[in-house]
Amino acid sequence: MKITVVGTGYVGLVTGTCFAETGNDVTCVDIDVNKVNKLSSGQITIYEPGLEKLFERNLKEGRLHFTNNLEEGIREAAVIFLALPTPPGEDGSADLSYILGVADQLGKILKDYKVIVDKSTVPVGTADKVHAAIAKNATVEFDVVSNPEFLREGVAVEDFMKPDRVVIGTQSDRARKIMGDLYAPFVRQGNPVIYMDEKSAELTKYAANSFLATKISFMNEIAILCEKLGADVDMVRRGIGSDDRIGKRFLFPGIGYGGSCFPKDVQALVKSSQEARYDFRILEAVMDVNEKQKLFLIPKIEAYFGNNLKGKHFALWGLAFKPNTDDIREAPALYIIDALTAAGATVTAFDPEAMPNVKQVVGDKIKFAEHQYEALEGADALIIATEWSVFRTPDFDKIQSILKNKTIFDGRNLFEVPRMEELGFHYESVGRLA
Ligand code: UGA
């Protein structure tokens, strides 16, 4: 099938490349000339494990093309995916100007029937708005479908290739058939394509992310309670997770969720609820708990150093909001850096991928190390903010010999508490028995 993906950001590039991988002819359109030139010449513009190989292969085999020209890019396509940014506006609601701008142009240039698909996470009712924006100028038939993505950064290729489910929101039989054919190769393992109306599909995406964010904030509050009551959150997590109705996954407490999705989507759903004159109290609490959780380690660190961090120096392992990405949007590490430096402390950080991005944001505020152990030099304590695999089994002897104090504040519960005690560390983590 010939398809077009408008927008070559994270979602667009993964979508385009993975559809090419299953034999489709894919054209990706972007207004950024520089990006299109880079991509056309084989330079990938995002970091995502496994994507580069597929990108290079499909580009070489002629199934993946890039252009700045929307009219040329959509000419032969049966399906046009819109994978455009929906940044939060000042009031927290999603800004639809990119999507509606492209919809407006599409109306003017469509020459035959096409399926136009909202892939971006968009508020309920957006498919109707896109439909209206195209219909204003269109002279041919078309359908607008909502097909939200459920990709996780770091495992996006796997999530795309083997999805738990594919949600397709449309009331048109013609569009349903085309979308079903396009996704057939991805759901062979028995995972379902779930058909529904457009609005339900749009809400499914927000409900999924908000539910997962709720699980995390819930566990973060249980962890706080564990510390206050003398219980261990690892035990409680195992105890509740083995109940199928709760599930083992996404129950790990830590220093809060970050990234480009959960914070934005939870906020947008709260905003949509307010517009519908409904006060979504659980989600307001989820956001509030998460804001506080990002700074969960700070009072522990302050208490340990006698409530005076002036002149103290910290090693910080992990800057990305989660492992296997260089994404630092809403990353807890940035909040920790702000709090420590505001209290007069200095920081040397190490992250396998995210240092260049953090440098751009914080400039000279902190130092960066070439290596995880180099970050420890002269530090009064080590703080862990992201659970990269390379931090999971470090050389503890080396850590002890470099750190000034044998002290670790771990925001991701990477190590077993008894082991750390045995090794003689002062070790503080999230919600576990000391
Ligand atoms: C999330 C969803 O998981 C995807 O299904 C969705 O498609 C995507 O948002 C999106 O809307 O685009 P992502 O933001 O890449 O994906 O990251 P996750 O792996 O889901 O992690 C989100 C945050 O939750 C991270 O900060 C992580 O550290 C935190 N987390 C996750 C916990 O604190 N505890 C857990 O048990 C799991």
Automatic annotation (TrEMBL):
Q: What is this protein called?
A: UDP-glucose 6-dehydrogenase
UDP-glucose/GDP-mannose dehydrogenase C-terminal domain: from which residue to which, for each copy? 315-417
Query: Which species is this record about?
Result: Chitinophaga chungangae
EC code:
1.1.1.22
Q: Which Pfam families match?
A: UDPG_MGDP_dh, UDPG_MGDP_dh_C, UDPG_MGDP_dh_N
Q: Which SMART domains match?
A: UDPG_MGDP_dh_C
PANTHER family xrefs: UDP-GLUCOSE 6-DEHYDROGENASE TUAD
Entry's family note: Belongs to the UDP-glucose/GDP-mannose dehydrogenase family.
**Catalytic activity of the protein:** UDP-alpha-D-glucose + 2 NAD(+) + H2O = UDP-alpha-D-glucuronate + 2 NADH + 3 H(+)
Kindly state which keywords UniProt assigns to this record, in alphabetical order: NAD, Oxidoreductase
Q: What is the lineage of its organism?
A: Bacteria, Pseudomonadati, Bacteroidota, Chitinophagia, Chitinophagales
Instruction: Please give the InterPro entries that the UniProt record associates with this protein.
Output: 6-PGluconate_DH-like_C_sf, NAD(P)-bd_dom_sf, UDP-Glc/GDP-Man, UDP-Glc/GDP-Man_DH_C, UDP-Glc/GDP-Man_DH_C_sf, UDP-Glc/GDP-Man_DH_dimer, UDP-Glc/GDP-Man_DH_N, UDPglc_DH_bac
The annotated pathway is: Nucleotide-sugar biosynthesis; UDP-alpha-D-glucuronate biosynthesis; UDP-alpha-D-glucuronate from UDP-alpha-D-glucose: step 1/1
Q: Does the keyword Transferase apply?
A: no
